[in-house]
């Protein structure tokens, strides 16, 4: 689905455009998905909102992190790993 959206839209758009289209395609496929899912940090039993948000979470299992950049770098990987750790998720698409 991601490749289909990328091919249809082409390069050069903001991340939010790809996110909305991919979310639409995932929903149309009958999968449960949440866009911009907040990811709180739990510290000493206190739930802290640190501004983390998963682009799309599919079936409460797969983290999709969308990037509209020429190349991925270490900060993108760190962001994705943070979401996986905070949510105890095992699968990610970036």
Task: Tell me what the structure shows.
It is a single chain. A hairpin with a 2-residue loop joins strand 2 (41-43) and strand 3. The longest helix has 14 residues, at 15-28. The protein is globular. It has helices spanning 2-9, 15-28, 74-87, and strands spanning 33-38, 41-43, 46-48, 53-58, 62-64, 91-93. The mean pLDDT is 90. The chain has one domain (2-93). 38% of the residues lie in helices and 26% in strands. It has 94 residues and is α+β, with helices and mostly antiparallel strands. It has three helices and six strands; from the N terminus they run H-H-E-E-E-E-E-H-E. The strands form two sheets. It has a four-stranded mixed β-sheet, sandwiched between helices. The chain has a two-stranded antiparallel sheet with strand order 2-3. Helix 1 (2-9) packs across helix 2.
List the helices and strands and how they pair.
Elements: H1 2-9, H2 15-28, E1 33-38, E2 41-43, E3 46-48, E4 53-58, E5 62-64, H3 74-87, E6 91-93
Helix pairs in contact: 1-2
List keywords for this structure.
94 residues; alpha+beta; two-stranded antiparallel ribbon; 3 helices
What is the radius of gyration? Answer: 14 Å
Class inferred from helices and paired strands: alpha+beta
Question: Could you tell me the mean pLDDT?
Answer: 90
Secondary-structure element order, N to C: HHEEEEEHE
Query: What global shape is seen?
Result: globular
What is the CA-CA span between the terminal residues? Answer: 13 Å
Major beta sheet summary: 4 strands, mixed
Oligomer type: single chain
> What share of residues are in beta strands?
25-35%
The count of domains is: 1
Provide the spatial order of strands within the biggest beta sheet.
Answer: 1-4-5-6
Enumerate the spans where pLDDT stays under 50 for 5 or more consecutive residues. Answer: none
Beta strand count: 6
Count every helix, treating DSSP H or I runs of 4 or more residues as helices: 3
The helical percent reads: 25-40%
């Amino acid at each position: 689905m991601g490749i289909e959206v990328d091919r249809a839209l082409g390069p050069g758009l903001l991340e939010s455009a790809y996110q909305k289209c991919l979310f639409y395609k995932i929903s149309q496929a009958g999968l449960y998905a949440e866009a911009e899912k907040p990811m709180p940090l739990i510290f000493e039993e206190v739930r802290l909102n640190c501004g983390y948000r998963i682009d799309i979470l599919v079936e409460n299992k797969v983290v999709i992190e969308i990037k509209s950049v020429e190349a991925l770098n270490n900060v993108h990987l760190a962001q994705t790993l943070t979401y996986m750790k905070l949510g105890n998720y095992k699968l990610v698409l970036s």
